[in-house]
Structure formats: structure tokens, C-alpha cells
Amino acid sequence: MDPQAAWIEMLEAVAIKDFFEAELRAEALLDWLDQEGFPPQTVSRVLPTEWDRLICRYLCRKIMLAAKPQGV
What we know:
The protein is mainly α. Helices cover 67% and strands 0% of the residues. It has three helices and no strands.
């Protein structure tokens, strides 16, 4: 797993409103982090690893919520 590539692909999918693909990347990233994988660099400035982990988890969860049909 390349978490940096998955992060970039997830953001690109969100940019074109492809929430199906974004959700797939978000799920993969969360699984990766749950298995103690290292987080992607989430912003252009280098942050402590724990901050990148928190930002990644937060955004992945938000994307997964946005990808769900309303009323589900």
C-alpha cells in the first residue's frame, strides 16, 4: 500500500465529485492506518506523524459520510 498515492487519488476523486472512488480510497487508508501503517503527508508542510494520522482519519470519515446516499 502506498498511502501517499491513495491520499492523492482520494483528493483527486473528491475534486471531480467521484465519491465512489474517493470512498474506496478512504476505506483503504483507514484500513491501512488501523493496521499501524504510516500516514500520508496530508498537507504541503511537514507535520508530526500523529497530526497527519489525525487529519487523514478525519477526512476519510467525512468522505465516507459524503459518499453515502441521503437517508441511509
